[in-house]
Amino acid sequence: MSVSATIEEDLPSDAAETEGSLPPTGSGAPVKAPASRKHGKGFIYMPLRDADEALRKIDHHAKEMSKEGFARALGHDAPKGRFLNKLDALKSFMLIEVVNDMVKLTPLAEDMLYAGSEGSRAKARAKAFLSCGDFKRTFVEVPKNQDHSTQYLLDYVRGKIGIVNEVERFLKLFLESAHFAGLLEGEPNPLAKSIRLRPAVLEGGIATEPAGAANVPSPDQFTPVPLEEVDSALESFGLASYRDRSELSQRNSGKVELKIAEGKITVEVQRPVRVTIRAADLMADVPAILQLLKAKGFEA
Question: What separation in angstroms does the CA of 60 have from each of 63, 65, 130, 186?
Fold first, then answer.
């Protein structure tokens, strides 16, 4: 098995937008827009990565926190206003339930935050992403493992889902969340002309493809390595420490060598594996990665 490594420079995340310009909550209740703007359906308040960070404010032993304490942990003076929008977003991802003014982590949230393996945490992130109804509808509409027009996606969200106000911001939140869930190839760039989504491999039969979609990858195409195999693959390359910054894919075809000896037929298949690492510091990352690969016997 051969391996190639691609390094991409990590770009700083966009500065947080002023909270007054953010869209309505995930509850679906639209915020009243100025008379000069078209009304439209409301949508979720924050992306999945922000939801993950917010939930880490809750004690991982107790797995619950008072609504007032959680509001203060998120930088709000009281559990009202924009805090309620964030609470609605967490509910949309099926990550919390509120009982008697106590914010409690759901089993899905516990898996996403604290499951014992990265594969289990990744599956929980994907399930949380698809728990948001508007995100799931948009995700299902897009054929997987192939480039898809971003403009078509914008038109679909505007025409079929009914989001009119700040549709570009919805796309930004969708792409950021899909990326955090491991379902987007490349960086979440809403200005890109096309995007490429990965199929979600989940238990429970959650649909990830539009009905009748043809999705047969070509033999030379690189497709994502299954989530449950990512950890072991990175470990075999010596790159386990780069898990949070890596994307693994493999070609569907490869070189085949047939050997016959002692009455046995041995078929050896070599398929290229591609590891894409988002670099935090190119000058430091490149020699470190080369050293790790060489230590595992790979020639760079």
Answer: 5, 10, 24, 31
